[in-house]
Amino acid sequence: MTDRVLKVLEFDKIRSMLADCAVSVMGREFAEKLRPVSDYEAAARLQEETAEAEAELIRTGRSPVDSFPDVRASLRRSGVTLALGPGEL
To answer: CA-CA distances (angstroms) from residue 7 to 14, 34, 39, 83?
Structure first.
């Protein structure tokens, strides 16, 4: 899809509403970078993932993903130092 089409469809507003629902920093960042996919298999896989999450939400009444801290800095550090402190683990 072209940027013009995305603008006409107000995709940026949809993406912003999705980002507002994110329960983690990484989820928000992921939502803010989303773009539609044109590959059928990729779209089908993403739709299946969404259906699974929706089914879990309906079954349990809560999101299958709870809030969690951003651990990317700790992961980068662990690759360099090969050690993490107890709090990071």
So the answer is: 11, 14, 21, 46
The 8-class DSSP code of residue 87 comes to T
Instruction: Indicate whether this model's pTM tops 0.70.
Output: no
- C-alpha 50: how far from chain center: 11
Q: In the prediction, which pLDDT does 85 show?
A: 72
pLDDT: which is higher, 72 or 67: 72
CA 22 centroid distance within chain: 7
**3-class SS at 7?**
helix
Coil/strand/helix, residue 61: coil
23 φ, ψ (degrees, to nearest 5): -105, 5
